[in-house]
DNA sequence: CTGTATCCGGCCGGATACTG
DNA sequence: CAGTATCCGGCCGGATACAG
């Protein structure tokens, strides 16, 4: 931070607003997983179902529809029998994923602290 | 991306996992707003209530407690009458906010596309 | 293979009242 | 000023069954 002079007229609330919109788009329980699973190239429905461990068909479809609707995924259906559908990241989504690496890096730097905050307070062993 | 050679053994799923954890921590309806509102320095409860437009006392408290618990905020209570409580970002949180600017930048680059995706689909012109 | 439809429980979050 | 307690509605998401 401390770049107040560079941004200009942007108040903190503006940042918060824009930021919240972005976060909300990927804040679904499965959005990140689906996005990352589709990052390596065109993937099929069943491939996603397998890579995104634990997701149900319902949530996979809903997540895909949302990402598609937000312009992050493109759905390509081939009129074959049996049907074949491929999902591909848009340029926007690729850039988003790249931006998200900043968060991944942050998470890695503070992995220990996060771990501690997610367990601790409940374990309470006698070993210290 | 395209840093596959640098990270080493990290599979996409690992990224997705770490990433999801981070996103989850700031995915509450008010987390981002509170975080950004507290970024300028120590802020008091009522200050937050005012800057974070629309938040209720209940949600403000819950959000603060969560951020505190995740090590992103520090709560300082002064034993005065009337009471005075200040909230400050931790170093972790400051770094997180800096990382989040990557997302803000992304949002700004794709602001138009985001706008379109949030309206559209309801207009339904006859051009298609 | 790629979905859709329905039911249902749990959690998130708003409104309101009360407290030290 | 800075919270806490309670009620309650709506949405998210899991399980399951059905369909082209």
UniProtKB/TrEMBL annotation, chains A, B:
Q: Which Gene3D superfamilies match?
A: Winged helix-like DNA-binding domain superfamily/Winged helix DNA-binding domain
InterPro entries on file:
HTH_HxlR, WH-like_DNA-bd_sf, WH_DNA-bd_sf
Which superkingdom?
Bacteria
User: What residues does the HTH hxlR-type domain cover?
Assistant: 17-115
Looking at the UniProt entry, the stretches that span the membrane are none
Question: What Pfam families does UniProt report for this protein, alphabetically?
Answer: HxlR
**Keyword Transcription in annotation:** yes
Alphabetically sorted, this entry's keywords are: DNA-binding, Transcription, Transcription regulation
| This protein's name | Winged helix-turn-helix transcriptional regulator
From which organism does this entry originate?
A: Saccharopolyspora cebuensis
